[in-house]
Amino acid sequence: MALRRRSIKDTRGEAALFRVRAMVGFALILLGLGVLVARYQYLQVQRHDEFALRSENNRVKPRAIPPARGLIFDRNGVLLADNVPAFRLEVVPEQVKDMPAMLAAVREVIPLDDGDIDAFRKQLKQNRRFDSVPLKLHLTEDDIARFAINRWRFPGLDVVPYLTRRYPYGALFAHVVGYVSRIDADDMARLDADRYKGTSHVGRSGLERSYEDMLHGEPGYELVEVNADGRVQRVLETHAPTPGKNLYLSIDVRVQKAANDAFEGRPGSSVAIDPRNGQVLAMVSVPSFDPNLFVNGISKADYTGYMNAEDKPLLNRALKSAYPPGSTVKPFLALGGLELGIRRPEDTVLSTGEFCIPGQQRCYRDDVRGGNGTVNMIRAIQLSTNTYFYKLALDMGIDRFANWMGSLGFGKKTGIDLLGEAEGILPSREWKATRSKYPWFQGETVIAGIGQGYWNVTALQLAHATATFAGHGTPYSPRLVMATAAVKERPTPLPNPPAGPSVIRKPNDWNVVNEGMEAVVYGVGGTAQQAGVFKGFPLRVAGKSGTAERFSRRSNEYDTNKNLAYLATRHRAWFIAYTPTDAPRIAVVAMLESGAWGAADAGPIVRKVMEAWLASTGGPVPPSNTPEGGPAVPSSVSELPEDTPVATPADLSAMPADSSSTAPPDDGGNP
């Protein structure tokens, strides 16, 4: 057997191989360490600020602080819209794993109706997942206690304090002040998301909406430290929000209440304006509604009740409803006749009971059988003689008629600081051309002269025209807000200069028409004199009644039915007036949707408004001064609670004082 040859070990080669492998391994280790160091340097040096901020954000969260909404006061500092503390249940969506299950569980602890759930789901779609979303507003003490016991079951939910809107006088100011309600998707599309961060309500109607930008204010924020569960541990830093500005209205709560009570629940509206500056002293629409029901979401039953009510309480009749004005336009037409040189005060017209257009067989009747005989302008206003104004309108012609009445504000918005004002209808050739294929007829001019036909005016428009006349022709846009004030600042009056020059060129023209309107109240046969509307009133009053027919007549027969309830179903009753006649300080309009006669039915409403105004300027306070559903109306600012913010008379004194049918029935010769 041959012997194997033994190999000789290459020690030197193995050592060299080991050295190579060791160097490669060491190089790889150095490379790895270099990459690691470079990564550490990149993360901890170059991106230090970014990751430090991320780390801090995991511990510190910013939370928006919504601003306190500005308050609303009447002209004497009586609070009309307040902010009161309340609590709501909020949800942070990103901290809730199963939203449907959470909602079902919460309903076992806190009552949630379908409206709450629907509103919550709508806001979920428009908010970021880390933003808090209100689930239930205005929690009761029992709700808060039950949730506190079950708090551990609901991560991402918390009870948060907030300020909610409250309207102490309820329905009394609902159509003027309006109300706020929860922000919805449509609101978010038009609102500044940054400015409304944390805000849950927005002005929905009335002054709350018109002055939303001023009332809302600017939001603030606070930095809070949270734990791993997202619960707030402490507040680190606070940047206070800027509260909204307070509004001071020209309305006097006592005059407003007197106007409201005078209707005794009958549908209608009334507006009172200071002719010296356009300030609205009262603005009432009857019936009204409770704005507090809308703040945190009105129930379906309540809303259905309002919507189905025959008397439409949600409708602002003073601002949005227009009706034929009847004979209330006659003084304005008479003034136009004088200003345009068509009539002289002494010119007379023979009223025989009917007026016929030359060349036509169809005649238009006076309201009084047999007419009023020979009347001049003053007598025609006093007796409301249709024939006089039929002829005047015909002589004036529809084009001059429309131009003159338009200069008094008819057929267009008055410019009041409320949204949604109706324009009404001023009869004109142009207006008809856009709505009919037929030309303008002379008969339409004739009936326009007594406020019938195509005529439609709002109570606000008629009050504006009356105030313009009472102010000797100087027009002012009606204004509800007369001053504003930031927190801890004195109220700043809002300027309201005249909207234009006086529409009256000859002062004596005003005197003539004023004399006729005074004769309505005090002259024998005057409609208001017969009804005794202003008997015993301490100031001299000038006025005019109007009884507008709601249905066209079928014949020329006189209606001998004297049943007032029946007549009320056929007529709308108007009355306009101002006082004192030597230097008018208040002009008032009242309208009843169903009234037998203008003077007898709407006149007493005007008187009660004037009585309340007179008492508020220094006379005795009217009795029974507690609005339904609201606090007592103070007789003066001195009776307000000590902690009630008010504007003193000195604060507000800077507002300058100068700042196709036959003729319908009229109230000429009727009370």
TrEMBL record:
Stated family: Belongs to the transpeptidase family. MrdA subfamily.
TM stretches of this protein: 20-42
Enzyme class, broadest EC rank: hydrolase
Penicillin-binding protein dimerisation domain span: 65-235
Biological role: Catalyzes cross-linking of the peptidoglycan cell wall.
Gene3D superfamilies linked: DD-peptidase/beta-lactamase superfamily (3.40.710.10), Penicillin-binding protein 2a (Domain 2) (3.90.1310.10), Penicillin-binding protein 2a, domain 3 (3.30.1390.30)
Membrane topology: Single-pass membrane protein
HAMAP family: MrdA_transpept
Pfam families: PBP_dimer (PF03717), Transpeptidase (PF00905)
Catalytic reaction list: Preferential cleavage: (Ac)2-L-Lys-D-Ala-|-D-Ala. Also transpeptidation of peptidyl-alanyl moieties that are N-acyl substituents of D-alanine
Residue numbers annotated as active site: S327
Organism of this sequence: Dyella japonica
Gene: mrdA
Protein name: Peptidoglycan D,D-transpeptidase MrdA
Pathway: Cell wall biogenesis; peptidoglycan biosynthesis
Location(s) in or outside the cell: Cell inner membrane; Cell membrane; Membrane
Keywords: Carboxypeptidase, Cell inner membrane, Cell membrane, Cell shape, Cell wall biogenesis/degradation, Hydrolase, Membrane, Peptidoglycan synthesis, Protease, Transmembrane, Transmembrane helix
Domain Penicillin-binding protein transpeptidase: 268-611
Record-listed E.C. numbers: 3.4.16.4
Region feature (Disordered): 617-671
Predominant subcellular localization, coarse grouping: membrane
